[in-house]
Every structure is written in structure tokens, then in C-alpha cells.
Design goal:
globular; alpha+beta; disordered N terminus
Length: 277
């Protein structure tokens, strides 16, 4: 089944031991990166990308502050035909210790739910837990190392896919899906091209970092790669991630997944947050 990640528009009302890896070959597209010109080297740049926490912090802001949300999820079959949709509108409330949501509108069409009321597919179930938790949850802006024992598998998967790609913690995992997420791992570098370039996003000068599956790969080789493409824009003023897109393709006996995610970030009342997903 082919999935298209839902589009979310957030309108904010504020209450406001590592595995050794070799440096991948980096292509510079009409840009010169040097310590003299930029204050850092290409190797430093890749280090910033791998250790970035600004993207994760933006999502922590999303839970920490109250805001309104408007989401639409569409599910497609292999022919690209829409077989189901789910619209949600409401408010995410927070007192900066606890957070909870109130849905004002829920509209579903097509094959979203089973007869017992449960979701037919993994994707809406996982994203409900990440963005629309049923119960009151704890919120904090503290960055915590390691796994949260209270996180479900859905939440751990979301954090791994969304925030930990290419980090040492992922790269240490041998085999399986997490290994395929380690885009900087020595064994995975043979499948990717890595490119740094300049771009302008919402009037801001940015560094663009793209990791993309090599066009010369055979179909059989592409099966070894879960992440087909990642594009990140880093604000040159502070190196915050202000745009990111992902392309995932994964298939096994139980799941046929073709997923695109686009995350637009901005500054609202000086807080760095996702505004559209």
C-alpha cells in the first residue's frame, strides 16, 4: 500500500561508544566550504549535520506550546488512487508541564478504519501517537539522552526516523531497519551521493545538504536502502534546520511503504517550530 504523509498546518497561539566511520565523499555544488571562508571545514559541516538537535527541539516546542492544528492524511494504492482520507482540526493545549489535545473536527472517508474502529494501517496509528496523543502527556524542553522507557514502539520508530538518522546511536545497531537508516555508516556510503550547496528559503540564506541514492544503482541494490532521499536546509545565521524532506521506500511481507515527508520550519515569537508538515 502506498502512503502519502498527511499535511499539517500549525497556527500557533503561544503561552509561550560510537562506531568509527569514514568521511563520505561530499560534492560541493557551486559553493566553497573552508575554515577561512566559513569558519568550518566540510568535515565539520557533516559533524554538525550528524549532531543536529535543532530539528528535534523544534518538535519539542510544538508539544510544549499551545497551538491550533489542521491536518489531512491521504492514503493511496499502488496506482496512485486515493482510497482513504482523514481530516482533523483542533487545539493542542499546554500548561508547559502537561499537554493535551481537543479535536474540534474529525472527518474520515474511504478505507481508514476497520469495523472495530481501529486503523487499518500503521502510518495513521503512529502519527496519531506522535502528534495527536489520546491522553494527557508530560512535556519538557529538556534534551534527554537515551531511550525513554515510557515510549511505545511507534514513538521510538518516529524518533529514529525523524530525528536520529545518521547518528552514532543508529549506526551502532547492526542489521535490520535501523542499520538502513544510518546514512553515514561506512557500509551505506556506497549507495549515496552527498551534496552541499547554497539556497534561499523564505528569504533566508541557507546551506542545503542533500543525501540521495545514486542514480547508477540497480533495482536490487536499491532494495538495500530504506532512505532514498533527504534534503535539509540550515539557516546560515544559527545553523537551525528550517526545512527538511524525506523519501522512504520499504517493502517486506507485511508492509509496502512509499512515503514522502516535507517539514517546513519557521520562527514564531522567536521560537523555532514546524509550521507545516
Amino acid at each position: 500500500m502506498r502512503f502519502l504523509i498527511f499535511m499539517l498546518s500549525f497556527f500557533f497561539t503561544f503561552q509561550i561508544s560510537a562506531q568509527d566511520t569514514l568521511m563520505p565523499v561530499i560534492f560541493l555544488d557551486d559553493i566553497v566550504i573552508s575554515e577561512e571562508n566559513n569558519g568550518f571545514t566540510v568535515e565539520d559541516f557533516v559533524g554538525y549535520v550528524k549532531k543536529d538537535t535543532t530539528f528535534y527541539m523544534g518538535f519539542k516546542h510544538l508539544r510544549y506550546y499551545s497551538h491550533q492544528y489542521n491536518s489531512e492524511l491521504n492514503i493511496f494504492n499502488k496506482k496512485g488512487e486515493t482510497i482513504g482520507s482523514l481530516i482533523k482540526k483542533g487545539t493542542h493545549f499546554s500548561d508547559e508541564k502537561k499537554a493535551w489535545i481537543v479535536n474540534d473536527t474529525i472527518i474520515d472517508n474511504g478505507k481508514i478504519f476497520k469495523r472495530n474502529g481501529k486503523y487499518r494501517y500503521y502510518t495513521p496509528e503512529a502519527f496519531d501517537e506522535v502528534f495527536f496523543p489520546k491522553d494527557t502527556i508530560d512535556v519538557s524542553l529538556k534534551m534527554v539522552d537515551g531511550k525513554n522507557k515510557d515510549d511505545s514502539q511507534n514513538m521510538r520508530d518516529a524518533k529514529t526516523v525523524g530525528f536520529s538518522i545518521g547518528t552514532d546511536g543508529v549506526e551502532q545497531n547492526k542489521g535490520g531497519v535501523k542499520k538502513k537508516l544510518a546514512i553515514f555508516d561506512i557500509e551505506m556510503q556506497q549507495y549515496y551521493d552527498y551534496t552541499i550547496s547554497d539556497t534561499i528559503y523564505n528569504g533566508r540564506d541557507c546551506y542545503s545538504f542533500t543525501v540521495k541514492v545514486k542514480e547508477t544503482l540497480l533495482d536490487k541494490e536499491k532494495e538495500k536502502v530504506l532512505i532514498r532521499k533527504i534534503v535539509s536546509y540550515f539557516d546560515k545565521e544559527n545553523f537551525n534546520v528550517i526545512y527538511r524532506e524525506y523519501k522512504f521506500i520499504y517493502s517486506n511481507w507485511f508492509l509496502d511503504l512509499d512515503m514522502d515527508i516535507f517539514v517546513h520550519m519557521d520562527y514564531v515569537r522567536n521560537k523555532h517550530i514546524p509550521t507545516d508538515i
